[in-house]
Design brief:
By secondary structure, the protein is mainly alpha-helical. It has 4 helices and 2 strands. 51% of the residues lie in helices and 9% in strands.
């Protein structure tokens, strides 16, 4: 199981789901998936895009438990 830190990154960057989707070109569904335990279903490319937009490294987006 994975814990996602995307939501926290979004809060620090003051970005809503829609704003992050607009900034990255990803769908809101993809952003929502990345915010929860379904982050493990996101591709590395998707995670890299999200991390870049949030000023984070991919490895900082999630933690395996």
């Amino acid at each position: 199981m994975f814990t996602s830190f995307v939501k926290e990154g979004m809060e620090k960057a003051a970005l809503s789901v829609q704003a992050l989707a607009n900034q990255t070109g990803l769908s809101t569904n993809t952003i929502m998936r990345a915010r929860g335990p379904m982050i493990s279903r996101c591709t590395l490319d998707t995670l890299s895009t999200i991390a870049g937009a949030l000023g984070m490294k991919v490895k900082d987006l999630f933690e395996e438990r």
